[in-house]
Design a protein that fits this description.
The protein is mainly beta. It has two helices and 16 strands. The strands form two sheets. Strands 1, 3, 4, 6, 8, 10, 11, 13, 14 and 16 form a ten-stranded parallel beta sheet that branches. A six-stranded parallel beta sheet has the order 2-5-7-9-12-15, with no helix packed on it. The longest helix is centred in the C-terminal third of the chain and has 10 residues. The two termini are 31 Å apart. The relative contact order is 0.13. Belongs to the bactofilin family.
Length: 150
């Protein structure tokens, strides 16, 4: 099977209500009233685009507006408006039009999207469990994210 470039486009004038999870790139120029998760590729909120919820992805670029938290596992570029906390583990770049209303925090890669919620004090137990059972990663983890959200 060839590696093809897959991108989901939310066009201007399009409104989606609910969470959206994709295993490829996504560009939002419309309105998404819910969370947006891209497990691979670029998550782009274009000029005029609005996400009312959490935006999570490998590589995140915000040129529009996000009213919610932003989580980036790789690169993060902001040249728009974010009202929420920013959590990243790679690099961050703030453009000349960047407007932030929240906190910025750099964390280890394992503490971003892939990490399960671990109650305080159980970090060692979780590390031992992860080291013992390292399952083979499926081709797409969209199903895993959907189950974790439920």
């Amino acid at each position: 099977m060839k590696n093809e470039l897959n991108i989901t486009l939310i066009s201007p004038g399009c409104t989606i209500s609910g969470d959206m999870i994709v295993d490829h790139g996504v560009s939002c120029f419309g309105l998404l009233d819910g969370g947006l998760v891209s497990t691979q590729g670029l998550l782009h909120v274009g000029e005029g685009g609005l996400v009312k919820g959490t935006a999570q992805g490998d590589h995140v670029r915000i040129d529009g507006r996000v009213d919610g938290n932003v989580h980036a596992r790789g690169t993060l570029e902001i040249n728009g408006h974010v009202s929420g906390d920013i959590i990243y583990c790679g690099t961050i770049r703030l453009g000349p039009r960047a407007a932030l209303n929240g906190t910025i925090k750099r964390v280890a890669r394992m503490l971003t999207i892939e990490a399960e919620q671990i109650p305080p004090g159980n970090e060692r137990q979780a590390e031992q469990t992860d080291a013992q059972a390292a399952p083979e990663r499926p081709e797409s983890n969209v199903t895993e994210l959907s189950r974790a959200k439920a």
